[in-house]
Amino acid sequence: LVSGFAMMLGSFSKEDSAGPGSQSLMTFYFVVFQIIVTIILLNLVITIMGDIFDRVQENARAHFLYGKAKICLDYAHTRPPPEEDLESFPPWIQVLLPKPLEGYDTVAENEWAGGLRALK
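Structure tokens predicted for Ion transport domain-containing protein (120 residues):
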């Protein structure tokens, strides 16, 4: 185990093997190990990036609407007082939100929650 970890860090020498016939076998194992580790790590990076992308896409519409409302408020506050139009910019805003259905407000156990959570 320790020698395998040392090989990952670059401490690899064919001369350290036990016998003359095992040098080619040791080289073969090292190459196979490096290929498998590279494939596993690339799959992990792809999964992490996919989860981050999904999380960003879930919040994209909310951030867009928040930015749009912020621009409207900035515009309303920069206008001079005599030109304020209460019909276009009322002092109060009403927000309508959908009421969650009973029993459906939590994520079910069999529902997809991301690639990383599927690995755990």
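The mean pLDDT is 74.
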